[in-house]
Write a structure and sequence with these properties.
Structural class of chain A: alpha+beta
Order of helices and strands of chain A: HHHEEEEHEH
Number of domains of chain A: 1
Oligomer: homodimer
Largest interface: A-B, 34 and 34 residues
Strand order of the largest sheet of chain A: 4-3-5
CATH architecture of chain A: Orthogonal Bundle
Number of strands of chain A: 5
Largest sheet of chain A: 3 strands, mixed
CATH superfamily of chain A: Winged helix-like DNA-binding domain superfamily/Winged helix DNA-binding domain
CATH topology of chain A: Arc Repressor Mutant, subunit A
Radius of gyration of chain A: 16 Å
Helix content of chain A: 25-40%
Low-confidence stretches of chain A: none
Distance between the termini of chain A: 45 Å
Number of helices of chain A: 5
Shape of chain A: globular
DNA sequence: TTGACTAATGTAATAACATCACATATCGAG
DNA sequence: CTCGATATGTGATGTTATTACATTAGTCAA
């Protein structure tokens, strides 16, 4: 069962910062936004992020070294599909989606090759519809 | 037509270093291996890598901040499929593969959402067959 | 050849991202 | 209360990447 996690003070602060943000934030941007709340060192942010990532409440975007609050209020227990991110390089907006066929194809490859996957990153960089037409 | 690129001295050194390597290397590891050839600063490596990435001769692994020589002697002109990487966290070996269905599914999503993709990253982290059974 | 342009290179400094090491505090179980 | 586990505070350090500026090398036209 996926209980709603009790967040600690720092985890709550970091999560709220990410939730309020328009787009992804770097750890150091989060730090700066939380100076007023007593944050002084990167580690305070990274430690909170680590837990939030564990809980599936936050995603890390590897290609831009940044973090976003998870868009879906999932139920992580079921629905183990891989999540893909489309990141707009103009406005920074991130769209999150999950595709069963992609998930399945990846699993097929890993199964056939005896590869035990632990984490999969799918990130599409480009320009979103809004920025493309503007 | 994709002409074989004339590489400069530094590009050649960096490419050869990556080609000889068992697995992916960080820019700073490459730098260290090229000290004997007169390399002194990170920028010498990053500049060469930038070109090699342009030419499609090298890939960047976003999830581990490292670089590998491209496994396929492709023909980049055709075959615009997205490339996926399976990265073993035990031994560092990287397997490269391309899946038309995944490529197509991603394109469907981007088309439907008016997203103009420029680059796509697919990286599977885990443990390879050899390390899994060992 | 000269001059002017472009691409490549060299170098130092700095920025951006992330972790280590160690001390202190908080909280629940027994 | 006391022990152990988890969370936190803090400084230093490690790792990755870029900026800024000077220099060198190659190309091509007049």
């Amino acid at each position: 069962m996926t209980t709603a996690h009790e967040l600690t003070k720092n985890q709550t602060l970091v999560f709220n910062t990410l939730s309020r943000a328009e787009g992804p934030l770097s750890a150091y941007t989060i730090l700066d936004q939380l100076r007023g709340d007593g944050f002084r060192a990167p580690l305070q942010v990274y430690r909170a992020l680590e837990k939030l990532l564990d809980y599936g409440m936050v995603h890390r975007l590897e290609s831009i070294n940044a973090f976003v609050a998870c868009a879906h209020p999932h139920n992580h227990s079921h629905n183990h599909g891989m999540i893909a991110f489309a990141i707009c390089e103009k406005c920074g907006q991130v769209s999150e989606f999950s595709d069963d066929i992609i998930t399945q194809r990846v699993r097929e490859w890993t199964t056939q090759n005896g590869f035990k996957q632990t984490k999969t990153t799918i990130e599409i960089r480009g320009v979103c519809a809004a920025c493309g037409t503007a």
